[in-house]
TrEMBL record:
Biological process annotations from GO: carbohydrate metabolic process
Lineage: Bacteria, Bacillati, Bacillota, Bacilli, Bacillales
Record's protein name: Delta-lactam-biosynthetic de-N-acetylase
NCBIfam families, sorted: spore_pdaA
Gene3D superfamilies named among the record's database cross-references: Glycoside hydrolase/deacetylase
Length: 281
């Protein structure tokens, strides 16, 4: 079965009011079609919306997007779904649309204790409301990725609006942390189009999807740390990009055990900046 990530009811309720207004230099295609005019609505075809989904890893098999209909687009635009599947390397990614109960601080504590790198994809709301946590992410060596300013469906936006969504987050993070570099983007709710892939790529971003995920984002339906641990460990595979939501208390409580369990199986946690090969299947 394909996993599809839908907007969480809890996240929607909290974000809606606040956001009402919310190397791999390797392998990029040598020639790509011209982008639609910056102020124009996306052209047909380029504006087709896709919801990222994948066939989960099971019994040692690698996950696959071959049946989802968008594999050629991800490959064409150099998006990340899997790393090198011949190596037991894992890439830990968190989505931070808003803060809940200090859980991101707990997650950072575990990452610091275990000496594990991660990337946090943050929104405009997050950087405005939690500047100290954003500073801490950067100070402790983690990457900060772009999750858009207002968490829109980016498949509906023309290139100029996509550019503005990304530029506003990048500028806000730079003002808080002093870090100017921002290379990675995660589409809100995993919804994307070719216009979005191309427009963000033109701004220097690589889109990051995932190959390990479970339904962790609903804060009203947490099922306990054991469920989180089993859900993640059952899907581990070489080159995995793990998607976890920082609003999940289950994730915060299970993270240390997940790291220890993965290392016991011979896995190493790496930064996305260290990914030197992407796999599409």
């Amino acid at each position: 079965m394909a996993i599809r990530r839908w907007q969480a009811a809890g996240a929607a309720a909290l974000i809606a009011g606040t956001l009402a207004s919310a190397g791999l230099p390797h392998g990029r295609a040598a020639a790509e079609p011209a982008l639609p005019r910056a102020d124009a609505a996306p052209a047909a075809g380029w504006s087709k919306a896709y919801h990222f989904g994948f066939k989960k890893s099971k019994n040692g098999e690698l996950p696959s997007i071959a049946e989802e209909g968008f594999q050629p687009l991800l490959e064409k635009h150099g998006a990340i779904f899997l790393g090198d599947t011949s190596r037991k390397e894992l890439y830990l990614t968190f989505d931070n649309g808003y803060e809940k109960d200090g859980l991101t601080g707990d997650i950072l504590d575990v990452l610091q204790e275990k000496q594990v790198p991660a990337i946090f994809f943050i929104t405009g709301h997050y950087v405005k409301s939690e500047p100290e946590l954003v500073k801490r992410m950067a100070a402790e060596g983690h990457l900060i990725g772009n999750h858009s300013w207002s968490h829109p469906d980016m498949s509906t936006l023309p290139p100029q609006k996509i550019k503005q969504e990304l530029a506003d987050v990048k500028q806000a993070v730079a003002e808080v942390t002093g870090v100017q570099k921002m290379d990675y983007l995660r589409a809100p709710r995993g919804i994307f189009s070719e216009t979005m892939l191309a427009a963000s790529g033109a701004e220097g971003y690589r889109n990051v999807f995932w190959s390990v995920a479970y339904k962790d984002w609903d804060t009203s339906a947490q099922r306990g740390a054991e469920h989180a641990y089993r859900s993640v460990m059952a899907q581990l595979h070489p080159g995995a990009v793990l998607l976890l939501h920082a609003v999940s208390s289950d994730n915060a409580r299970a993270l240390g055990r997940i790291i220890d369990g993965a290392r016991a199986q011979g896995y190493e946690f790496k930064s996305l900046d260290a990914m030197d090969k992407r796999t599409y299947r």
